[in-house]
Amino acid sequence: MNLSGLAPTAKLPGYDRKELKSGILHLGPGAFFRAHFAPFTDAAIAAAGGDWGIEVASLRTAEVADHLNEQNGLYTMLIRDTSGTTAHVIGPILRAHVATRNPGDLLTRLEDPAIRIVSLTVTEKAYGFDSATGGLDLKHPDIAADLVNRHAPRGVIGYLVEGLARRRAKSIAPFTPLSCDNLPSNGAVLKRLVLEFAGRIDPQLRHWIEEKVPFPSTMVDRITPASTQATYRDAERLTGRQDLAAIETEPFTQWVIEDHFANGRPEWEKAGALMVQEVSAYEKMKLRMLNGAHSLLAYLGYIAGYEFVRDVMDDPGLAALARRHMNAAAATLDPVSGIDLEAYADELIARFANKAIAHRTYQIAMDGTQKLPQRLLEPATEALEHGARAETYAVAVAAWMRYALGVDRNGERYELRDPRAAEIAALLANVPRNGGAVSKALLGLPGLFPAALTGNVAWTEDVANKLEILIQDNKLPLF
Ligand code: CS2
């Protein structure tokens, strides 16, 4: 793809791409990155300039990287609303690397002083985070492999530590690692993992990182369904070019970033990002109200036979339940500067109901063991501590448990797509399919449920009762 001759219906980058030099290396060029980080950076460069071109690196599959390289880094972002679809060609990606094909290449890029930010959208499960301890999961396959073979890493923590070690050895200023995944205090979590990993291989390196490297946390938000044939078709119709890296997303976008960078940053505020000292209040709000309700709707919706979130929102009982859950989640939050939580919840309901967005319940349902703690289990624990019944949390957990059985309402099997899927299947193998037995087994999944929840008899009974209804009927009558 090049920019000349693109159909006039597409909005093009507002700067000269030929002049752009690399400043950012991004790990994980999935659809969410292409709908969020890249367009924010595109708009920041258009508004304020700077050498903030992005090189991306895929740590697993090659497909997206190959398409991006074939297209000269360009791709189409479709914004869908009920009033129609607009196409924006996004410009800041300069090159794509595939780590599994050429790991040395990625390590060389991590050493380049021009790279001042290494950002990440790699999903929760890639971090090697143990939610029970808050530290490094030594059994995580990437962490275990990279601790043994630190100079030839394969996971994100291994790459970041090796990249920082090489810079330190060559007296090159560090880059700023920037986590853009849906984890609470994602920068602080990343810092803890990187320091723990570095401390195990070289305490002096750990000390250097602790002194020199900021790990800003961020809150990221934009609903981005996986691309489909309809995405590629509409991208071609609106730009006049075939585009296999096209993505589609909603009009809403939000980014809150802690303004602590070692070595400069794009002027993202010119693109609408909010630069703050402390992001955790925003992050908690988004994880608990948006993502918590999303997971609730995804599990209940999937087992009730709804393909998309917008279909779930057409069910008045489930839409009302989502709103109730948002209220319950809001009750666990401290006030968030500049935000009216009622209005925020109303907006979330409208976003979930957007008829132009085909967001699969099955997509959101994946990786439940990685998502439940921050979205549902931590706020449920706090709600119970404050004397609430935490009933919508019991519904959500029961729905996840029903989903974890891996058999739909027609008796068809589906894949859980969870890094702990095998463990879950083994745990449930000889368990009778009733609410009491299944919930007891899953509450015992090591490290997942906090003791404050498993030890709360009234709440676990509530979960078991709701699960029993879901096992019988695939739908809860009470809402
Ligand atoms: C969703 C998120 O798939 C999921 O788990 O809850 O990807 C959600 O769409 C985004 O966080 C919205 O910003």
From TrEMBL:
One of its GO terms (biological process) is mannitol metabolic process. Keywords: NAD, Oxidoreductase. One of its GO terms (molecular function) is oxidoreductase activity, acting on the CH-OH group of donors, NAD or NADP as acceptor. It holds the Pfam family Mannitol_dh. It comes from the Bacteria. Residues 23-270 form the Mannitol dehydrogenase N-terminal domain. The keyword NAD applies. Residues 279-469 form the Mannitol dehydrogenase C-terminal domain. InterPro entries: 6-PGluconate_DH-like_C_sf, 6PGD_dom2, Mannitol_DH, Mannitol_DH/Oxidoreductase, Mannitol_DH_C, Mannitol_DH_CS, Mannitol_DH_N, NAD(P)-bd_dom_sf. This is Putative mannonate dehydrogenase. The gene is ydfI.
